[in-house]
Amino acid sequence: MILPIVAYGDPVLKKIAKDISKDYPKFDDLLENMFETMYNAYGVGLAAPQIGLPIRLFIIDTTPFSEDEDLSEEEQKVLNGFRRVFINAKIVEETGDEWAFNEGCLSIPDVREDVFRKPNIVMEYLDENFEPQKEAFDGLVARVIQHEYDHIDGVLFTDKLSSLKKRLIKGKLTNISKGKINVDYRMRFPDQKKKR
User: Fold this and answer.
1) Is 148 a residue of the active site?
2) Are β-strands 120-126 and 83-95 bridged in parallel, bridged antiparallel, or unpaired?
3) Structure confidence by residue, pLDDT tens digits, 100-129
């Protein structure tokens, strides 16, 4: 089932999400719905807060990035078919020199800005079977993970922008929160309390 994506301005996007256990109700259905929702919106990641659930769960599938001809063949291979579920994730290490990449977000449509992040991370998380994992990620995969991880900590990519950039996009953000935007996927807007 395709769920509405929560728009910028909804308080759930600013909450620090809570851990979940393997007896979380209808978990398999939730995962299936999240993937369907993400693919319907042409996203590469989706966090539970973006569908209104303040829980530490996010999914990614970087396959669409693998078609970017500006990337090396090796990078394209890594991104192609990289699909994961992260439950109760924790970044335990971030290393390397920060680099900029133009990021966007399904909750903040039509806003894209350069965000600086470290290129290498080590994560501890539970997979979709609630099995513990510890893994290192780098490059674009690490970036997508960091972006989604921020969501479960109540942080949006716009929070990482300079105050000047924030002022420049303030009008766009206000319009998004009021539902004054055209998107080709379902959204839930905080100021309208209705779904589109």
Assistant:
1) yes
2) antiparallel
3) 999 999 999 999 999 999 999 999 999 999
pTM over 0.90: yes
151 assigned ligand-binding residue? yes
The CATH classification of domain 5-178, taken from the options 3.10.20.30, 3.90.45.10, 3.90.226.10, 1.10.10.10? 3.90.45.10
66 assigned ligand-binding residue: no
pLDDT band at 190 (very low <50, low <70, confident <90, very high): confident
| Domain spans in the chain, listed from the N-terminal domain onward | 5-178
- Strands in the chain per DSSP E: 5-6, 45-47, 57-61, 83-95, 99-105, 108-117, 120-126, 132-138, 187-189, 194-195
Q: What is the pLDDT of residues 136-156, one digit of tens each?
A: 999 999 999 999 999 999 999
User: What's the pLDDT band for 196 if we cut at 50, 70, 90?
Assistant: very low
Among 36, 75, 94, 148, the one annotated catalytic: 148
Annotated ligand binding at 135? The verdict is no
Which tokens sit at 60?
């990614």
Beta strand 132-138 pairing with 120-126: antiparallel
- Beta carbons within 10 angstroms of residue 45's beta carbon: 23
